[in-house]
Amino acid sequence: MNKIDEIKEDLNPVADEMWALDAFDVIVDQDGSIIAEVFDKDAAQLLGKANKHITYLLAEIERKDEALRFYADTKQYEQEKCLFDGNENDVYYEAPEIMQDLGERARAAL
Question: Does the predicted model carry a pTM greater than 0.90?
Answer without folding.
Answer: no
